[in-house]
């Protein structure tokens, strides 16, 4: 059974930190009759944001339907921040990972590493049309042979942990969602507060995280706060209304609960959904 929702061609993502290389691979991919649409990213962090559906409704809809976010990723290996092999390891943790093809000018020894991290093919630069078409054919065969997976789990089912790429001073850190205690809105951005006491600013609106993380046990308590419900230890009355306490002891954090969210929060605390938090 194919994991394709239609027969109109493949949706693929091309990733290369050099503009000429990205333009070339995009052109060659779009020249293939098997390719319907090509998304592009200049580094692995941007690629992960695209694969999460941050910028593209089709990618998000495919994930919800139990399909890979894209059918294939064509990526360079040597990129600043997260390398192509780092990206490959993250893709391997997806519920429905896309096929991965490395398109790069590195030495043959790197090809061995590429296949160790699950790459379907390894195309060396300079790229020629025949070689890229051979890689596309392998992707077509992989997609046709891959069964559909179960759609995104409901709130009562466990689901894989998401990894959020965070950029700071030229360094990219991967932050597992399971380490996030609460999220604070900061304009069009959100600040992730984690269990080790650190915080990370990400270019994602709080409303988008609320929708995406609802099934992972996160709940909105205020226009400025989203909290991991399993980590809430108290709901208390204060002089300004209700507040929640996350954690205990010296690491406890008190956050306000707005009046409009109080009733729903009480109901969720009394009848909390099962989640993948451990």
From TrEMBL:
Protein keywords: DNA-binding, Phosphoprotein
UniProt keyword annotation of DNA-binding present: yes
Gene3D superfamilies on file: 3.40.50.2300, LytTr DNA-binding domain
Modified residues (4-aspartylphosphate): 76
GO molecular function, one term: phosphorelay response regulator activity
Domain HTH LytTR-type residues, every copy: 164-271
Pfam families the UniProt entry points to: LytTR, Response_reg
Top-level taxonomic group: Bacteria
Keyword DNA-binding found: yes
Domain Response regulatory: 11-140
Protein name: DNA-binding LytR/AlgR family response regulator
């Amino acid at each position: 059974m194919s994991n394709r929702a239609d027969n109109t061609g493949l949706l693929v993502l091309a990733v290369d930190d050099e503009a000429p290389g990205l333009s070339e691979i995009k052109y060659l991919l779009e020249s293939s009759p098997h390719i319907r649409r090509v998304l592009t990213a200049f580094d692995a962090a941007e690629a992960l944001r695209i694969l999460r559906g941050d910028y593209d409704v089709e990618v998000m809809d495919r994930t919800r339907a139990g399909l890979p976010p894209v059918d294939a990723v064509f990526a360079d290996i040597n990129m600043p921040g997260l390398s192509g092999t780092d990206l490959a390891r993250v893709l391997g943790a997806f519920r429905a990972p896309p096929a991965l093809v490395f398109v790069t000018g590195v030495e043959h020894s790197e090809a061995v590493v590429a296949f160790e991290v699950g790459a379907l093919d390894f195309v060396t630069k300079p790229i020629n049309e025949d070689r890229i078409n051979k890689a596309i054919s392998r992707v077509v065969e992989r997609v046709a042979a891959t069964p559909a997976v179960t759609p995104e789990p409901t709130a009562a089912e466990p689901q894989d942990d998401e990894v959020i790429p965070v950029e700071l001073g030229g360094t990219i850190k991967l932050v597992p969602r399971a380490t996030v205690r609460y999220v604070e809105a900061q304009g069009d951005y959100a600040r992730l507060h984690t269990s080790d006491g650190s915080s990370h600013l990400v270019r994602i609106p709080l409303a988008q995280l609320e929708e995406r993380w609802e099934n992972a046990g996160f709940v909105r308590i205020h226009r400025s706060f989203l909290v991991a419900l399993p980590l809430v230890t108290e709901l208390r009355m204060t002089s300004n209304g209700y507040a929640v306490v996350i954690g205990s002891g010296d690491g406890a954090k008190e956050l306000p609960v707005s009046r409009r969210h109080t009733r729903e929060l009480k109901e969720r605390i009394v009848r909390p959904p099962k989640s993948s938090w451990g």
